[in-house]
Amino acid sequence: MKFKVLTVVLAALMLVTFGYTGFAQSTDPNTFVYVSFGDPDTLDPAYAYDTASGELIHQLYDNLVAYGKGGVDTLVPMLSTEVPSVANGLLSKDGKTVKFPIRKGVKFHNGAVMTPEDVEYSFERAMLADPSGGPCWMFFEPLFGVQTLNDLACKIGNLDSIDDMQTLDKNLVVKIYEAIDKSVEVEGDYVVFRLATPYPPFMQILAKGASWGSIINKKWMIENGAWDGKPDTWLKWYDPSKESMALYEKAMGTGPFKLVTWDHSAAQVVFERHDDYWQGPAKLKTAFIKYISEFNTRKLMLQTGEADAIQVPAMYLDQVKELAGVEVLDHLPSITNTTLLFNYTIPVQGNEDIVGSGLLDGKGIPPGFFNDIHVRKAFCYAFDYDAYIEKVALGQGTKPHGPIPAILPYCDKSLEWYPYDLKKAEEEFKAAFDEKLWNVGFKLTILYNTGNDNRKTAAEIVEAGIEALNPKFKIDVQGVQWSTYLDKLRASALPVFFLGWHMDFPDAHNFVFPYMHSVGAFSGYCGEDMADLCRREFDDLIAKGIATTDDAVRAEVYKTLQRKAYDLALAMYYVDPQDIRVHRDWVKGYVYSPAYSANYDFYEVWKEAK
Prior knowledge:
about 35% helix, alpha+beta, ten-stranded mixed β-sheet, Dipeptide-binding Protein, domain 1, D-Maltodextrin-Binding Protein, domain 2
């Protein structure tokens, strides 16, 4: 209790220090305070691949196009004066050439006027940097049919692999630049993208809400130590550390707000209005995003008016629903899902604390435990989905139909995912390993990252369902530090693990690829046998689905992929979470958008004094 009181006092002192003085300012129409948790990673659009960073970038930058208010179905012009289409001649009939007419007179935060060259530089610089694990694959896939700059270098150089890009031949360095340069070109007032194949969601990749599509200032970037734009120098800036990047904690965009400071010690980011914003200045003058992990502190700030909006996990929703002067929006559709994934090739050596003996002897599990389809199906049948959604998600979610969230086109909602059925789970376990598993039993440890109560409870639901079937089945649920969990995950050492996927862009491809492709985001964690399965069953279908603009063909492809994911029990998709927004009732103009990582778009909202 003393700690909580101290936290509140420190939070109040923090607000006073930065000129924000509690309730008296809460009704000030010029200032908005949003309190969240979980620090951002970076302010650089080429590196940022987390929602906390995307929320900041959203306020500071603009993109070529944007979504219509509150939806994901319609695109509208932004820094491009038109949305390319075949009808207006800006999208070629084969879908491989996309032209954007660049808006004139748009000013960056330093007063410089945006040019088509700034747009070109924004994308070329991102691809030539290509930070490991970052978002730039979304440029490489449509433009070149590869996933990374390393892949492109291998393709251009006709090489099987490149262990160290810094050893590239100088001629190859220039050829790689030339390929990048030809894929994004300036033609007068236009910027033209040349795609390897048709790629239906390409413009969604570039739309507002996708931080990697932000347009930056070329001259300012070079002056601040970024790539100098020359064909033969880019290796110096390839795969940089996030702290070494010019935009790590700086910003120079055309967005409605400027960056005042990212104060790491005070755990807050401060914004001020960009008065020369091309759409007109925002109603708000100043905005704060503060990071406070303790919910009771966030709640008290909301009650006193020190915060205009706060982030509220579902487990605390009842605590804010009855607060006077507070508006709660829940059951908001979120383009995300959460999944229990199986490792098909589990390492034993050095992993005995999780897999035990590493044998099918009742004292552990063998490396290919989840290679047996009956084991995977049994796990899917043994999970009580309704209990999780009701007791853990507190109703803020729905049962998935498979890897594609129900909100997206091409999700086949007629396919029901596995029911909670212990009788069928028993039948599957009895069929596993030629009926040996049921007689011998197994022992398995499921890890979760400490502090993630949702994952802990999900693991306990798995444990309860499976142990109820057979006294020889033993599952141990253990919490470990996030760093330990991440190390095990990266080493492909976790037999099963909980992860979620939040959309990069609102298209079925963005879910089937990470879950079902042999080089998808989760493939490396699931072992080589899973990758082999994906190559046999899914890769060609996934390529077919993304390389056509025919809706009927795409619909059939994704229906087939969804059915195959079910038939093979590829993973256990257990909840499509829904979103929550909580703010004071003096906040006006808010429109929820499932396409935005930003919880609040400071340009759209304003406040009415009370």
